[in-house]
Amino acid sequence: MENPREQIDEVPFFEKEPVASSENFEVHYDQEAEENIPEGLESKLEEVKDLVDRMLDLDERTDKTKIYLFSNKEQYQRHIKDHDLPKGEATFDTEAGAILILVGEREKGEFLGGIAHEMAHFNPFFGGVGNDPERSKWEQEMVCNFVGNQIGVEFGDKEINNRKLLVAKEELSRIKKFSWREKEYDWENFLALEVLVYPWLEKRYGMKKLQGLWGKLFKERQNLASSIKDIYKQELPELEREFAADILKAETYKDFME
Prior knowledge:
The chain is of the alpha/beta class.
């Protein structure tokens, strides 16, 4: 006769009741994932949501977001395959209102920064524009990277920006000239360069103007060059040159932001 306990354990954790629940989230995870999850996860998630909404200057989401934390890559990939999630929804699925995260041995800041990144994809700020399969997610991905990095730093990942600056300097030295959204560059290294643009713009001109730029890109669907000119009163090539010059002369992220 089968042990009832073993039968219960065969039920996947993502089909069980949530392990943790708060005003805006239901969290599902297995025992193996638990040791890598920060204490007080529910309150931290609510804090992260508040920070994300403030950065994007909008909060209209009323239904709870489900978060599934997977302890190993095989289980994570099997879930994606079994549920026939399209490639663009392998990490986040706006229709289902769920965030899927692969939990490794991450520090608290990196872990919460990753969740914030996916949370930003859900934000009504994008109005569904960034999730349209016919439209490139590039601009949205940059915003989500910015949000995730800022949250990561807020919760303790103090070295993330220095790491990105180092990669950005190396990439800029290789390509010689920065041109926003050039496609022939190595994607991963170029992303580390591009991801510093928004922190740089925020430091120089403030968060309100950065939110205004996002509004032009996502709500009004303007192209990048005209959006930059409308918000910052500069031609895009001029802004690109100034950004690249600040990257090259900086020794640390602190230097870059001064």
